[in-house]
Amino acid sequence: MAPEKQLEVSRVAIIGAGASGLAAAKYLLAEKKFSEVRIFEQRATPGGTWNYSPLTREPNFTIPRTQPSAVPDQAIWPNGSVDVEFLTPIYDQLETNIPHSLMSFADKAFPQGTSVFPRHSVVLQYLKDYAEGLEPSISYQTQVLNVEKSTLEDRLGPWKLQVLNLKTNETTKAEFDAIVVASGHYNDPFIPDIPGLVDFNKAYPEAISHSKFYRHPEEYANKKVIIVGNSASGIDMTAQISTVAQLPVLVSEKEKSSFIGLAMNTPTAAYVPEILEFLPQERGVRFSDGHIETGIDAVILCTGFHYSYPFLQSLKPSVLVPSGTYAAHLWENMIYTADPTLAFLSIPQRGIPFPLVEAQSAVISRIWSGRLNPPSRAEMEAWVHKEHQEKGEGKPIHHISCPADVEYINRLHNLSTKATRAPELGLDRGGDGKEPPYWDLQKRWVRERVLEIKLASRAQGDRRHEFKSLEDLGFDYAQWEKDLEGGKALIS
């Protein structure tokens, strides 16, 4: 891969101090090349979307929401608080859908004694611990308002950032040679424009909500509830709400869930077709099969989120597509084809996020440090074109379900190993640099069984957090290897 122009990167800005931004900072600093690595985080603490907020509504929230927001995230100052808050989709009983042994960063395991599927508070503390040592590089309660470059034809020119100090309300500007967008994609809710929805919302305020605002099942006690969507969050909320709501809880789905095993694990739910129309006068809905349900008390739209970058409105060609269903012009789902000094983390969905962003960060940091040549613009755009030919348009363009996520992580790992060694800089591993994750057969074996492991955990009910290892739940890789050597018939 030959660069069109040699990149000159000294100052790097990272937008967001969640898992992605923290991983990026670790790998960039490990290159020992950059004069400044600065993280801008609008919250008061690290952890990004894993920061829990009890708030359940955003000011000026509108229904429907079919396009990404063009304004910055809404800052909220709770009464008596000295720190700003932003809503996240974290709810009271949330726990991971991924075993922590897969979820962890390559150089930091979860604490000994962590349950196989940890609670959200455990993940947040894990990220806070991971952020130790990075504090001098993080500007908290600082919101990025705008990122632009005078002309993308001059790829050597600086990026200009406008940032707002949320504590002082002071706006300042700064220049950087490269930008990492690590702001995530679980923030800007997508709410479809279903006929009758607006009038239904006017007639019954607070009846329509989005999964981002769900906190606990008790608010749905004795109510007739429809869950719209059957992804992991929809299935989890259905299971929780079924313990207190009128039964069955109705789950409206366009297509069968990829988490079908978990869905069938909730017998108190009834699966119904897509909603074609809301009927305000009957307080009801009409489904695609013609069936009408009336007396609906609450509808939770588990309909996902937009890719949303309000601080990149001037970027051309735009990464944002009008629908917000995917991000455009990104080679390997991370580097902007028009200018390789702009990168995005955690764009792919349905993969394992923490090791994935590590693998991305390793490649990006090596390219910007000059140890690894980026592809030419033509090569990057050819890669994007091929992805669209194979996956089409919309959400699937970024789906990397197993085994695609395993292959992605390992492909980026192998690309990182092609970087020029720099022992004179004192880099890790004799000059090779910080080692990104590589998933061996054991990791892949666990990845292929995540759904089965989750079902085994759920079967333990309230005791599930007593199980600290995969072996406790009956998933023993060493025994699997022995059986394989013995010639027993096994699943993949």
Instruction: Please state the overall shape, judged from the principal axes of the Cα atoms.
Output: globular
* Count of individual helical segments: 13
Radius of gyration: 23 Å
Helix content: 25-40%
Q: Which band does the percent of strand residues land in? A: 15-25%
CATH architecture of the largest domain: 3-Layer(bba) Sandwich
Strand order of the largest sheet: 3-2-1-7-20
Structural class of the helix and strand makeup?
A: alpha/beta
Low-pLDDT residue intervals, each spanning 5 or more residues:
none
Termini separation: 36 Å
Topology:
Elements: E1 11-15, H1 19-30, E2 36-40, H2 100-103, H3 120-130, E3 138-139, E4 142-148, E5 159-165, E6 170-176, E7 178-181, E8 188-189, H4 197-203, E9 208-210, E10 225-228, H5 232-241, E11 249-252, H6 260-264, E12 269-272, E13 275-279, E14 284-287, E15 292-293, E16 298-301, E17 305-306, E18 330-331, E19 335-336, E20 342-344, H7 353-368, H8 377-391, H9 404-416, H10 428-431, H11 441-448, H12 450-458, H13 477-485
Parallel strand pairs: 1-2, 1-7, 2-3, 7-20, 9-16, 10-11, 10-16, 11-12
Antiparallel strand pairs: 4-5, 5-6, 8-17, 13-14, 14-15, 18-19
Helix pairs in contact: 1-7, 7-9
